[in-house]
Structure formats: C-alpha cells, structure tokens
Amino acid sequence: MSKEKSIVKKALEFCYSFTESHADLFVFHNYKFVNESISVCKEIARAEDIEKEDYEMGLVALILNDMGIVNAENKEIDNATLINDFVSANEFSEKEKKQIEYYIDFFRTNKIPQNQAEEALRDGKDIHLGMPDALERLSLLRIELEKVKNKTYSDLQWDEFCKQYFITHSFYTRYATRQYGAVRSKNYFELEKRIDKLQADLNKERKYSEKSGSEEILSDKESEDLFKIAFRNYLNLVALADRKAGLLIQVNSIIASVIIAFFVRQSESLGADVLINQEEGVNIFVIPIAMILLVAAITILCGILASKPLERAYKREVNKMNSGKEHFFFGSFDRLDPDFKHVTWEKYSADISQLFRGDKKSVFDELIKESFQVRKVLSKKFGYLDIAYKVFFGGLVICILSFLIIFIIKS
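Request: output the structure for the sequence above.
Response:
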C-alpha cells in the first residue's frame, strides 16, 4: 500500500466520521463533496502528468481544510482542533506538517498557484463550480453558512457572494478548463441573470416605495399588459355572444320552418280537419305546435336583439363621457360610430396627435372609457342571450311534455 493511499484514505475516513456525526450542520461540506474534490484532483494530476509525491500533502490539507468551522467556540467542530487531532494521531514528519500547514493556508487565502501541483489542487477544490448542479449546491452552502454563522442572506446578497466567488476562483489547469470550463461559464452566466432580475425587482420596489410610501402600485408596463388582456377577453366575449346568438337564430329558424312546412303540407292533404274535427272540436295537437312556434319566435327575437347593432345606446354613452369624440375603437361591428364616416383624416390625425402629446393619464382614461363601453355592450348581449336560452330550453321541455301528455290522453 502506497503512502499516498494510506494517508489520504485515513484523512477521508476521519472526514467521513466527522461529517456523518454532524450531517445536520454540514450539508455542503460533507463527505461527498470532499471525496469528489479528491477524485478530481487525482484525475487532473494524471492528465497533467503530475507525480503523486508532489501533491500528496496537498490532498490531506484539502480534506482537513473544509472540516468544521474556523475559530469555533465548540471544540468538537473547531477546524484547528480537528486538524491537530488528525495530525497527532498519525506519524508526520516536520516537513510534512509544514506542507500541510502551507496548503491549508494556500486554500484559505486563495493564493495564486505557483506550480502544476498547486494548480491541480486548486482546480480540484473548486471543481463544484463546473458541475451542472453548481447553483443548487451553492444553495446548500447558503443553508450551511446561515446555520453555522447564525446569519441570514437575502437572495441578492447570496447571489452576489456566489458571483464574487466565481470571479476569484478560476480554473488553472488545461484539463479542468477543457473538461469543466464550459459548464462553469454557463453557471456563471445563469448566476448573472439571477442577479440582474433580482436587482431589477429591487429597483422597482424602491421606485414604488418612493412614489407611494408602503403602497404597491402597478407599473405602466403592467397596466398596459392588463389592458391588453382585458380588451382581448372582451372582444373574444363579444364574438362568442354573436356566435351563440347566430346559432340560436339558425336552430330556431329551422325548427319553425320545419313545423310550418309540415303543418302546411298536412293542411293541404287533409283539409280543415287537421285543425278542427267535427266530433272533437279544435285539434288538441295545435296547442303544443303553437307553443313551439311561439318559443322559436321569442328565442329568435332575443338572438336578434343580442346581435343587432346598438349604436344609439352606444352613442349616448360616448356623448356623456367625451362629447361624442372617440379616439380609439376596440369593439365589434355593433359599436361602430355611425358618424365616423364623415370625419376627415386631418381632424382624426389632429385629435390623435393631441391625445398622445398629453400625459399618460389621458391615454389611460381613454382606455378606461373604451373598457366601460365594451362591458356595456357585453352586458346587453349576454342579457338577451340569457333570456333566449331560458326561453328555448324551458319552452322546449314544456312543449315535449305537452306532446307526451296529449299523446297519452289520446291513446
């Protein structure tokens, strides 16, 4: 068994024993993290043709460096105490002890590597930055630091801290740069995106706080988006109401046409007996037939009212709000201003230019007026549709029941 293997193995076993007994505290600097760093160090050293003897004590120092807490009051988790315990329990020469001290200081102070061995050790220690789940791992580091330091980081503070760590911990070896550099760069850019978003949100909150104290108000962009969504929904509802009205008119027109055609054909073939029977008087089947025709007529009337132009009522609303002047148009055909065909381009251009030269409040006021007018139209349309559907379904049920009752009585 080689010396490197025995020493590094003992250090890993010591680390495993410690991290397992404090797994609730050290969620980032755990055995998995340390073991991965050691494995990558060896991988880089082999790729860079570095002798084992050149980085042996560096591996031991890397393991011991991340154990516990520096200057902890609790000696069980104090880093210096743990290092002394491990060194005392193993036979190290003075030279090896000095090497371990040197490398621990090298890791903590983030010194620039002076040779290939130090470059490999540095890259191995920071290899987590080049892993696909680096940002998720760093969130574990945040949890760990908040526990051990009893400190709370905001999202922006933590991301800024991580960004600074990325900047000050680069890959030095060609192998690490080639194998892990692309992923590291991707993680860094993702981190910058997070920071930009958090800073934008923070600036927005500060701006709103300055404007309205503790109250939160919508930005102009948010207000515009809400208007877009509202008007799109309004126009979809107007189109839906028109389609439903058209469907009711079509269905009831077919029903009425079929019944009238059937009745006329029967009248021609049977004569007046289809209406009046000499023995029984008026044919009782005439009553449900008349009811169906009446229901169809009322439904068609309501459908027509739901889809007909409402320009008179609309014009009265416009006159109340803005003296007959409408700058925008967001409605369906039934809201078209009948007088707009007489407006010249010069007048319309002048009105729109004057509106947009004013403040944003004036523009939003116009949009609010449009919203009010569209909702007025929708209220009328769906009011008529509600009546039409109730009459259609209620009348249809009553007519079918009437036919059944008469049929039973006649039989």
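Residues 220-270 form the longest helix (51 residues).
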